[in-house]
Amino acid sequence: MRVANSHSIQFFTLDNLVVNPRLARRLPPALAFQYHALPVAKDNDHITVAMADPTDKAAYAAIATGLGAAPYVVQADPVAIDRQLAEIWAQEVQLSSLRLLVYHQDSPIAEKITAYAQYLGQLLHGKLDFFHMPQNGKANLKDLAEKASCNQDLVIFGEPDQSLTQRILSGPAGCRAAEQLPTSVLVARQPRWPLKNILLVTRGYETDNMAVDWLLRLAQPSKAIVTVLALTPETSVMYQQASTYMPHGLADWLATDTPLGRQLRRIAQQLANWEVVGQLRFRQGAPCQQIQREVATGDYDLIVLAADPADWWLRRLLGEVVNPLLGKVERPVLIAKPTTT
Q1: Residue 227, φ and ψ in degrees, nearest 5
Q2: pTM (2 decimals)?
Q3: What residues pair up with 306 in beta bridges, in sequence order?
Q4: What is the dihedral of CA 32, 33, 36, 38, to 10 degrees?
Q5: Region for 65 from its dihedrals, namely left if φ exceeds 0, alpha if ψ lies in -120 to 50, beta otherwise
Q6: Would you give the DSSP letter of residue 329?
Q7: Which helix (H) or strand (E) holds 323?
Q8: Could you tell me the maximum CA-CA distance found in the chain, to the nearest angstrom?
Q9: How far apart are CA 290 and CA 281, in angstroms?
Q10: Cα(247)–Cα(30) distance, rounded to whole angstroms?
Q11: Do 273 and 20 form a contact (C-beta atoms < 8 A)?
């Protein structure tokens, strides 16, 4: 039996590990779950596997057969291993069973919204359901929310026609949809496809992980190039006189032990694991200004970000981004929310 350390079996902590799903899936799921085993690293032709019990010779032999090579082994907590395995293999199920609810009015743009939704459905391996209104009908978000709550993963929302007065008095319909619908929402404003360039907005929050999940699902099959815009606190007037971009700050943020620094390192690793081409970007100014400036200079087909906090006091404390963005930007925007299933 080969171990990572010739003198003793090392204990490997999975807490901060970003697993490479392609590597992990080299071990058949039946074996992985049966023996609590997870491939965690590859060096040339040598694969390191974290196991709950590296001394189990039968398990080692089965894993070696499954991989087609004798692995190095380290010990890890079985609960942590099973948690990682569940995430890795659950994604395969999700990709084959996503449900996409498409909303549009019977208007000239309906055909375009339908074609756009069909394209996204192919990327996501999703099943499309439709909810539409007559051309002059009033969008009933209550009915749409009720249907969206029935195991729908994403609502593709074609905004209804609004007069200038309606838009001023009640705000863009996409803003209300993003607030009131219980699941993730893609406001399909001026839809464009195929996806070639996607902007991911991250704030270093735990909820950003939901946005990253949608990003990977869309960017990997479409081969889109990803730009990650990290929203940073507004700098002082002195620093605002500097260049719009902050190339030196990028390395500093990546090295910091802050929520945003850790999130950026995790995203960078996930993009590499899924072989998605990406770049990181920083800008200056208020958060909404940072996004608007990036969108103004980038030819983005889609913007992806997590929903603002549901509690009003958290929105006031942390700042609101989604509604100001939808009020200013004429691009499709995907607002990621926790799953309701």
Answers
A1: -110, 125
A2: 0.72
A3: 336
A4: 40
A5: alpha
A6: -
A7: helix 322-328
A8: 76
A9: 10
A10: 46
A11: yes
pLDDT at 167 over 70: no
Q: What is the pLDDT of residue 3?
A: 53
Which pair of tokens denotes residue 319?
């700042």
How crowded is the C-beta side of 42, counted as CA atoms within 13 Å? 16
Kindly give the pairing relationship between strand 46-51 and strand 37-43: antiparallel
CB contact at 8 A, 50 and 40 = yes
**CA atoms of 280 and 278, how far apart (whole Å):** 7
DSSP code string of 86-154 = HHHHHHHHHHHH-EEEEEEESSTTHHHHHHHHHHHHHHHT-EEEEEEE-TTPPP-HHHHHHHHTTT-SE
CA-based torsion, 158, 154, 208, 303: positive or negative: negative
Residue appearing with tokens 């080969």: 2
Percent of all residues in the chain with a pLDDT value above 70, rounded to a whole number: 79
Cα 15 to the center of its chain, rounded Å: 20
Q: How many Å from the N-terminal Cα to the C-terminal Cα in the chain?
A: 43
The rounded distance, in Å, linking the Cα atoms of 176 and 190 is 18
